[in-house]
Design brief:
With 352 residues, the protein is of the alpha/beta class. It contains 15 helices and 6 strands. 51% of the residues lie in helices and 9% in strands. Strand 5, helix 7 and strand 6 form a beta-alpha-beta unit.
């Protein structure tokens, strides 16, 4: 196990998470394994665990996520924590699990020393945002280090959660403990992470938890099997932003039912030679190509950092912000059907 000390310290965390707390957390992990919230994170992350993957665990404490994912197949892990006591406990546990060669421990404030730490395929922050005052800089530093997956947990913004946090902070103030915990509002986080969101959609209020999901773009290989035809998403995935999923599957069904199946049924059997006609259909290939190209374009528009894509995003944002008044200047008005659809959508969103 490689250990090093960062150039920046978070002294409040060092005091809060001392040797006694570290020993208690490690003993609890040894006896009971990961707690409920940790198990939820691990369940989502295990699908990405393979020997080629690397893990960066920010504020990982005694290394629960590190040890579980290393045991599940992750190749290497870097554990960054502001508490030397936590890192000492994680080092001892790594030795006992024969994982010392695959775990690197770094002591310090990640928001400050992040530039000196290599990026990783998986980045985790479990119960960290609630313990750091400048959460925006911490989140920015963490997300820029994630090559494939970024996972975090945070306390929900509820009155009873805030009450508990305030009581805990009051107790710490009474005993002269400078450490504080925080409950950050999700809508404020969205505004911080997506500063242009309000200018695009107007003022908003979150009424439920924020959910997001990854979309994998794929095309099936080795698809020629006698008697079996892959259509729709089973042959090639669809990115929701392209809105081409329905047209793709309807095109596949139309080609099969109205063009090919009547000819195929004239002779016995469904060998691969017949099915090749479906996959080679110019109409099917054009629709699949259009759908996949739209997904790749949407991904590039969201993630590429070159100048050409920055200019494309700027042009798109300008068109979205100015579309309304440009249409009014040109005398273009919504049709009655479009206006009805917009009113129905607005009523569904606002409940009015």
């Amino acid at each position: 196990m490689a250990c090093c000390s960062g150039c920046s310290r978070y002294s409040e965390a060092e005091r809060q998470f001392g040797p006694d707390i570290a020993a208690r957390d490690l003993e609890r992990y040894r006896r009971k394994g990961p707690d409920a919230t940790s198990r939820l994170l691990l369940k989502a992350l295990r699908v990405y665990s393979n020997g080629a993957m690397s893990l960066l665990d920010i504020g990982g404490g005694v290394g629960v996520l590190d040890f579980e994912l290393l045991a599940n197949g992750v190749g290497s892990a870097t554990l960054v924590d502001a508490s030397p006591a936590y890192l000492d406990a994680a080092g001892r546990e790594a030795e006992s699990r024969n994982m010392a060669e695959r775990l690197r421990c770094v002591a310090g404030d990640f928001a400050v020393l992040g530039k000196s730490i290599e990026s990783a395929d998986i980045v985790t922050m479990h119960r960290v945002v609630c313990c750091y005052p400048d959460h925006a800089s911490l989140l920015t530093a963490a997300t820029t280090h994630a090559r494939h997956v970024f996972a975090l947990s945070y306390p929900r913004d509820r009155w009873y959660v805030r009450l508990w946090v305030e009581l805990e902070n009051a107790r710490r103030r009474l005993f002269g403990n400078p450490f504080r915990t925080f409950v950050h509002a999700p809508d404020a986080e969205l505004r911080s992470m997506l500063p242009k969101l309000t200018s695009l959609i107007g003022e908003f209020e979150l009424v439920s938890k924020v959910e997001s999901g990854r979309i994998h773009l794929y095309t099936t290989e080795n698809y020629l099997h006698p008697g079996v035809v892959f259509i729709g998403d089973t042959f090639q995935s669809v990115c929701p932003t392209t809105a081409t999923g329905l047209s793709k599957i309807l095109t596949d069904v139309d080609i099969l039912c109205n063009e090919l199946a009547p000819q195929w049924l004239k002779t016995p059997g469904m060998p691969a030679a017949k099915l090749t006609q479906f996959y080679d259909s110019p109409r099917k290939q054009a629709v699949d190509r259009h759908s996949l190209g739209g997904g790749l374009y949407a991904r590039a528009m969201a993630t590429e950092s070159s100048l050409s894509w920055i200019l494309r995003r700027a042009r798109r944002d300008w068109k979205m912000r100015t579309g309304g008044w440009r249409n009014r200047l040109a005398g273009i008005q919504d049709s009655p059907a479009t206006m009805t659809a917009k009113m129905a959508a607005r009523q569904e969103i606002t409940g009015q």
